[in-house]
Amino acid sequence: MSSLPIASYSDGDGDTSESTALSLNDLVARRYSRRATIVGGLKAATLAAFGGAFLAACSDDEENMAPTVDAGADASVASGAAVSLMGTATDDGTIASVAWTQTSGLSVTLAGADTNTATFTAPAVSEDTTLVFTFTATDDAGQTSTDTTTITVSPAAIAFGAVARNLDDTVTVPEGYSVSVLYALGDPIDSATPPYANDGTDPSFATRAGDHHDALYYFGLSANGNGRDDSNSGRGLLVMNHENINITYLHPNGPTVDADGNRPEGEARKEMEAHGLSVVEVSDSNGWSVNRGSSLNRRINPMTPTVFNGPVAGADFMRTQFSPDGTQGRGTVNNCANGFTAWGTNLTCEENWAFYFRRDPNIDNANRTEKEVTAFSRYGVVSSTGNYGWVTVQPADPEDTAFSRWNAEVSGAAATDDFRNEPNQFGWIVEIDPYDPAAAPRKRTALGRMGHEGCWPSRFIEGTRPAFYMGDDSRGEYLYKFVSSAVWSPADADAGDRLAIGDKYLDAGTLYVARFDEDGTGTWLPLVFGQGPLAVGNAIYPFASQADVLTHARLAADAVGATPMDRPEWTAVNGISGEVYLTLTNNNARLRPIDGTDAANPRHYNDPNPGGDNYGNPNGHIVRLREDGDSSEATGFSWDIYLFGAGSDLDADDINLSGLDDTNDFSSPDGLWFSRPTNLGGQGRPLLWIQTDDGAFTDRTNNQMLVAQPGSVGDGEQATITNRDSNGTTMEQSTFVGAQPGSSLRRFLVGPNECEVTGVDSTPDGTALFVNIQHPGEDGDPGNITSNWPANQGGGGAGSRPRSATIVITKDDGGIVGF
Ligand code: FEO
Ligand code: CA
Ligand code: CA
Ligand code: CA
Predict the structure, then answer these.
(1) pLDDT score for 61
(2) Cα distances (Å, whole numbers) of residue 394 to 269, 333, 398, 399
(3) Distance (Å) from CA 20 to ligand 4 centroid
(4) Which helix (H) or strand (E) holds 721?
(5) Rounded Cα distance, 471 and 572, in Å
(6) Among 43, 157, 304, 483, which one is most buried in terms of CB atoms within 10 A?
(7) Which atom of ligand 1 lies nearest, measured to the CA of 567?
(8) Is this prediction's pTM over 0.70?
(9) What whole-number distance in Å separates Cα of residue 719 and Cα of residue 737?
């Protein structure tokens, strides 16, 4: 921030300066009972009214005159600018004191208010806002004069040059920014673990960074590292998900099987360990690094003991050989996006867990009830192998069920003799206390079971029930929100037993699913047992209890008539307005045919790259909604579509509806995050960060991250577009298109080859941005390495295997990233 002089200060040598203004000042002060002196425009008018002769006649009056003051010219600045108000005061005697005060507009804190030059930081605003300041001078006779100046503050605006689309095997950021690699696959999290060999020989990931870095969140630590300090931007804990693995690079020559076709125990255990989450302490001392010696460092993986909380804990269909009472579990898997709480905990979300289980319907359905078959089919628990063949491992210890637990087929006499119910233990929101490495993660069943992408909270407002917004990422799935039963009490933010506060807010409440109506409004439909179709009489799935409704939330949402969406990914909440944004990453023609569109999922078109025709909604969009009354408790909302993904070359009338150009075109939005309200990036008109996980635009650019400054719901217009399918059929569809972003949307980062950009957070002050790069080089293998990132970031690295990694982005001038 640079100092912005509003008026040049002159060391007013008042008594010797026979200026016209001084004489006039004396005159006006005398004639008008010594009330406030006026300078500027009125000065000329007054001069005209009284005339030069009168002025001259009074100029040698020996009476002590009031001071002459000038508050300087009016000015315009942007939020965040350092502003200096410079007043001048002259007098025929001496100036006893001066003072700056604010007389209207958004209140600011003035430094040096009792001097000629007062300074303040232009506050965050969402639209042009005027602030008026008064400069007062008092002379040795106690006479005062004042003048005012008006400062117009405009919203801070993104101010970097857009990064060009590119296919370079590196992370590209704008000029004036720097990238460093902080935490990559295999990095040790303690001092005893040797450096990562990165050739497939490392035997374990129990004390190393996992793979497929996804969502992340920064939790501040006190300066000495002993406890929580949300505001510390120099030391904190990064909590991040390791969603999945690039299995081929975890072994010397890819995964193997033994002579019987079974996976070796050591390989499978290593693959499990590379899943889950990391909690790692990081600090900034001339650059960011991981503190390997921290006692808070922790890996959570699919074997970590977990606890079930909420209405589903202990249900019959949760019982397993491992947990006969259905209250205990092992680990978490395929953790995708995330959320946080105001009481200092992390929420991690189980997404594509279903594919890790073996449950061949041709074998198992005969041993299941009709309800169970319906439920497992709806959730996709229908694999005849299970991911990575973990279930085939024959462990050295025959009592070890770490591998057999992935076999969800009925094999024993009762549910407590096998793992037929193990899939019901996944698909939940999991709360983790990052500050207590010994605390078992709690699965919060009141928030429902699905392919959870994320779980982002509403604003926490005293006396209001907080809400958590959750996408269910599969084609045609829904947007949900959970509204707590407990009203927010700010005292809970600092409680010592954080998971107990989680019990209060996350174990009881109402789960809703969204219906988007054609008129631009929507309804939150409650998923409550006994209401409407959520009852034993339901012909498709006879619901037996609230636990049944929550565990089979997808079936409940089907029954109440929720709106199927184009793959709901992340949600983000504008911390100022409370508006909720949801990425809908893409959808193919099979599930969104031309007659299957609706106002909230309106497009059906062709994006013919790469590799031939691609019909449906291959580029995705971002819908946003505003709760009625701006309340997290609302049961209704209004909505529009903030942004449509598209290449800039696609048809402007029906496809590229947001008018994207070469500086900001994109496809398949996924990660989504508003800058934190603790710094200017999240204030006024907050920055929205958009990350892509794309296959439709990758012929033109690697995956990317953009920054935007959106307006609000309803800032655009209703439009009717013409959809076209592969047969040449056309159909019209009405929708609500947000205002075109223009230059308020810009490409900030392009990632390396074959990566997805996902996961973003900053320090509270916004000067360090943490971003995750997931699965670079995912299409290659040890014999055909297709990315050398991150070893090649900044040069070198030839031949290196690719690694998912967390990067830190800083602005070279130390400012807030994005401005
Ligand atoms: Fe794990 Fe829907 O992305
Ligand atoms: Ca005087
Ligand atoms: Ca994702
Ligand atoms: Ca991915």
Answers:
(1) 53
(2) 12, 21, 7, 10
(3) 73
(4) strand 717-724
(5) 11
(6) 483
(7) 2
(8) yes
(9) 7
695 Cα to the center of ligand 3, angstroms: 13
Ligand 1 neighbours, Cβ below 6 Å, are 243, 336, 351, 453, 473, 569, 670
Atom of ligand 1 nearest to the CA of 334: 1
- Distance CA(59)–CA(18), nearest Å, equals 9
Place of tokens 């636990």: 547
Backbone Cα Rg of the chain: 31
Q: Of all protein residues, whose CA lies closest to atom 3 belonging to ligand 1? A: 336
3-state SS string for 267-294: HHHHHHHCCEEEEEEEEECCCEEECCCC
Report which protein residue has its CA nearest ligand 1's atom 1: 336
Least confident of 14-18, 269-273, 496-500: 14-18
Nearest atom (ligand 1) to Cα of 471:
2
Q: Which atom of ligand 1 is nearest to the CA of 214?
A: 1
State the Cα angle at 747 between 575 and 786, rounded to 5°.
Answer: 120
| Range 144-173 burial, b when 16+ CB lie within 10 A, else e | bbbbbbbbebbbbebebebbebeeebbbbb
Identify whether the C-beta of residue 805 lies closer than 8 Å to the C-beta of residue 185: yes
Residues 184 and 804: beta-carbon distance below 8 Å: yes
Share of the chain above pLDDT 90, in %: 90
Amino acid at 67: P
| Closest ligand 1 atom to Cα of 352 | 1
Residue pLDDT, tens place only, 730-745: 999 999 999 999 999 9
> Residue 616 C-alpha to ligand 2 middle, in angstroms?
79
* Ligand closest to the CA atom of residue 145: 2
**DSSP secondary structure, 293-329, as one string:** T-TT-EEE-TTSEEEEESTTTT-GGG--SS-TTS-EE
**How far apart are the CA of 43 and the centre of ligand 2, in A?**
18
Separation between Cα atoms, residue 702 and residue 680, nearest integer Å: 30
Distance 190 CA to ligand 4 centre (A): 28
694-752 pLDDT, tens digit each: 999 999 999 999 999 999 999 999 999 999 999 999 999 999 999 999 999 999 999 99
Give yes or no for a contact between 695 and 577, defined as CB atoms under 8 angstroms apart: no
**Distinct helix (H) and strand (E) counts, the chain:** 8, 42
Pairing relationship of beta strands 82-86 and 3-5 according to DSSP bridges: parallel
The ligand 1 atom nearest the CA atom of 569: 2
* Nearest ligand by distance to the CA of 567: 1
Q: Are 37 and 88 in contact (CB under 8 A)?
A: no
- Ligand in nearest proximity to the CA of 142: 2
How far is ligand 3, taken at its centre, from the CA of residue 662, in Å?
Answer: 24
pLDDT at 233 over 90: yes
Residue with tokens 């300074």: 119
From the CA of 213, how far away is ligand 4's center (Å)?
9
- CA 571 to centroid of ligand 1, rounded, Å: 12
Structure tokens that stand for 385 in this block: 């192998």
- Yes or no: say if 751 and 773 are a contact pair by the CB < 8 Å rule: yes
Tokens of 37: 């002196």
Name the residue among 288, 323, 291 with its Cα closest to residue 307.
323
Smallest-distance ligand from the CA of 694: 4
Residue 65: nearest ligand to its CA? 2
pLDDT tens, 505-542? Answer: 999 999 999 999 999 999 999 999 999 999 999 999 99
